[in-house]
Amino acid sequence: MTSSPSPFQPLGVALLRASLGIMWIAHALLKLFVFTLSGTSDFFTSIGLPGFLAYPVFAVELVGGIALLLGIYARQVALALTPIMAVAAWVHVPNGWVHTSAGGGWEYPVFLLAASVALWLMGDGAAAIRRSDFMAPQGRIPPKGPRRGEGVAQ
Predict the structure, then answer these.
(1) Which residue of 11, 19, 97, 137 is 20 to 30 Å from 121, comparing CA positions?
(2) DSSP letters of 33-97?
(3) Phi, psi torsion values for 117, nearest 5 degrees
(4) Average confidence (pLDDT) over 17-37
(5) Contact, 76 vs 39, CB < 8 A?
(6) Chain centroid offset of residue 9 CA
(7) Around 137, how many Cα atoms within 13 Å sit in the side-chain half-sphere?
(8) Cβ–Cβ < 8 Å for 79, 116
(9) Bridge partners, residue 130, by sequence
(10) Percent of the chain beyond pLDDT 90?
(11) Is the dihedral of CA 52, 42, 114, 6 positive or negative?
(12) How high is the pLDDT of residue 147?
């Protein structure tokens, strides 16, 4: 038995998309207003990354967050942002689970990474400005249960 999707599913996806966009924007603005871009660059250097990467990472997080919020190629943007949050999770793993730990924990970056992948899998949601199937998952997941002729009396 296959259940049909809820008519509210596109609204739920749009809520996820907008929330995720706001979080990406907040993540970028943290680099600008709290740590400063030069401070972020120094931090990148201290963990072995090239310091100059702080600037494009800030720009990609900000522009990507805005694109998610507005629903502009949201699937593709969510997928493109995943490497940034994967590196952030890798950086925070030694700090432990709780994000309030010294240096921040890994659960916040991992959640944003998972939410970005989920959005890529689910689609743009309602009220998206621009959509595309480019790099979108294709096909259908077959329903669970026995296939015709397997384990079912006919």
Answers:
(1) 97
(2) IIS-HHHHHHHHHHTTS-GGGHHHHHHHHHHHHHHHHHTBSHHHHHHHHHHHHHHHHHHHGGG-S
(3) -65, -40
(4) 96
(5) no
(6) 18
(7) 13
(8) yes
(9) 72
(10) 69
(11) negative
(12) 53
